[in-house]
Specification:
Blueprint (H helix, E strand, L loop, with lengths): L12 H9 L10 H6 L6 H27 L4 H15 L6 H12 L4 H5 L6 H16 L2 H7 L6 H15 L9 H24 L3 H30 L4
Helix pairs in contact: 3-4, 3-5, 3-7, 4-5, 5-10, 7-11, 8-10, 8-11, 9-10
Length: about 240
């Protein structure tokens, strides 16, 4: 009997998790632009541009999550995932993450219209965000869930902003940093659910390697956002 050893054995859940966590080195916290942002090296206009561009990403998050739900026949998964939409769109009693981001923009000196009109959004930023949303619309819901696992690395970047910004940018009203505080509470719940589903769905080695590719793709989307803003500001574009 000939044994085919050409197919690698699947990773254990522990090793698979380790492989996913190793992708943190590609997270945009390591991008030169984010390093400059969190080190106090940007001026007010540059920070305003960052907030205005990232707002496009914020408003597309619930649209992305609605697409995941629309592709998911599992009622229990939909019940869990819908929290993400509520977190960003808010309710009558809690305006949610989108409004919290607007408040960040106001705290940085932008007008509400300057933020919500999207006139400051760079074409490359829009292209990258739309690519992510389209991926979630067209892919199996399990793959779209997997793509959200860049949130494994998100608490570190939020903690840095909460720790460093009051010192580096004292002109920003600290009430405007509430978005980052909120995410520190919301992300662990979201990560636990997404990671559980990823570990359960991607069982073969080929599937696990596909999951690595998906999370890397999402890292590249976020990296591209920083690329676009970095290049725009280096060239003096407004």
């Amino acid at each position: 009997m000939i044994v085919n050893n050409s197919v690698s054995a699947p990773w254990s859940k522990e090793e698979f998790t380790k492989q996913l966590l190793a992708l943190g080195k590609y997270y945009h916290i390591h991008h030169p632009y984010n390093k400059a942002l969190n080190s106090g090296l940007l001026n007010q206009q540059q920070i305003q541009e960052w907030v205005a561009n990232r707002f496009y990403y914020q408003i597309m998050i619930p649209i992305k999550d609605a697409a995941i739900i629309s592709n998911c026949p599992d009622r229990e998964v939909r019940r869990q995932w819908i929290h993400r939409i509520i977190d960003h769109d808010g309710t009558k009693n809690d305006e949610g993450g989108i409004e919290a981001w607007v408040q960040l923009g106001l705290a940085c000196g932008l007008s509400r219209d300057a933020i919500t009109s999207l006139t400051k959004v760079l074409p490359g930023v829009k292209f990258a965000v739309d690519a992510y949303v389209n991926f979630c619309k067209s892919s199996p819901w399990q793959e779209a869930v997997c793509a959200s696992l860049t949130e494994l690395f998100a608490p570190e970047i939020h903690k840095e902003r909460l720790s460093n910004w009051p010192e580096h940018y004292p002109w920003i009203d600290q009430k405007g940093l509430q978005y980052f505080r909120n995410r520190l509470a919301e992300v662990p719940r979201d990560v636990d659910f997404a990671l559980y589903n990823t570990l359960e769905y991607f069982k073969t080695r080929a599937a696990q390697e596909r999951a690595i590719e998906i999370v890397l793709f999402k890292c590249q989307v976020l990296w591209s956002l920083s690329d676009q803003m970095y290049l725009s500001q280096l060239s003096g574009s407004k």
